[in-house]
Amino acid sequence: EWDVWPDGHITRIYSRKDAKRPEVNDFHVHWACEGLGAPRKQHRGSLDALEWQEGVRTTRRRCNGVIVCANHESKGGSCAIVVRPTTTKKLIARQLEASCSCGAILVHNNCGIIYDLFKFSERVCFHPRMGATKLVMGRPGINGPQESVATISPVLLNSARVNHERKKVFTKSRGKDIIADFTEFQHQHPDFVIYHTFEPVAVIITQSPIMLSFLVKLLL
Predict the structure, then answer these.
(1) Tell me: the pLDDT tens digits for 5-53?
(2) 61-89 pLDDT, tens digit each
(3) Sequential DSSP letters for 95-161
(4) Which residues are bridge partners to 15 per DSSP?
(5) Record's superkingdom (predicted)?
(6) What is the pLDDT of residue 211?
(7) What pLDDT sits at residue 93?
(8) Which residues pair with 106 in a beta bridge?
(9) SS3 of 200, please?
(10) Which long-range contacts (CB under 8 A, 24 or more apart) does 69-77 make?
């Protein structure tokens, strides 16, 4: 069932009929969120797509987290005050100018997670987006950052490596087989690729006939 207080990295896919049920209400959330506008035309996808990644993105919103007292229980204090932030940075800044009812200052625990809604093949997908840095630091959660991807392997402390692995996942999920495409390219253009490797980094060296002719002249 749909949780109106989603916490962490989750993906949910419902039929369009189920997404309209009152308890789901097109993945309605209770968090304070900011709308990020409509997608660019080239990224609109198709309603008939078989995978959500190729579907139509209908909504993109950013979670604004919560405003809490600097003396809040989650920070080791005794205050339980939690304030719902507004939807813009300017108005949130005004909220922070006030003090908590206990006298302490207010602090904005920004979430920053962006979530998308995709429609595809009679279904709807709720999908949060996070970059490599947030995955290394730990997914934002109600009670602070959650577990970092670095717990999987120390090499994932490197955000560049995390970004590389993240792209591999999304490439696979879109059904694109880079190796197969590369093999087909080699068949179509024999002798053009003279060396290649994909581990630990991708390296492809090409040489056209005219490049080879210049090399032969230099050697002679």
Answers:
(1) 777 667 888 888 888 888 888 888 888 888 887 666 545 678 888 888 7
(2) 888 888 888 888 877 888 888 888 988 88
(3) HHHSB-TTSPBEEEE----EEEEEEETTEEEEEEE--HHHHHH----TTS----GGGT-GGGGSHHH
(4) 123
(5) Eukaryota
(6) 66
(7) 92
(8) 69
(9) coil
(10) 69/100, 69/102, 69/104, 69/105, 69/106, 69/107, 70/100, 70/104, 70/105, 70/106, 70/107, 71/100, 71/102, 71/104, 72/107, 74/143, 74/144, 77/104
Rg (CA), the chain: 24
One-letter amino acid at 71 equals N
Please give the share of the chain, as a percent, with pLDDT higher than 70.
63
> How sure is the predictor about 176, in pLDDT bands with cuts at 50, 70 and 90?
very low
Distances from the Cα of 67 to the Cα of 35, 47, 143, angstroms: 19, 38, 12
Neighbours of 59 (CB within 10 A): 19
| Cα–Cα distance for residue pair 34/32, rounded to 1 Å | 7
DSSP one-letter code for 40:
P
H or E element at residue 185:
helix 178-188
Q: How far apart are alpha carbons 162 and 113 in whole angstroms?
A: 17
- Please identify which residue in the block is written with the tokens 């998308």: 116
In 3-state terms, what secondary structure has residue 58? strand
Handedness of CA 214, 216, 218, 220 (dihedral sign): negative
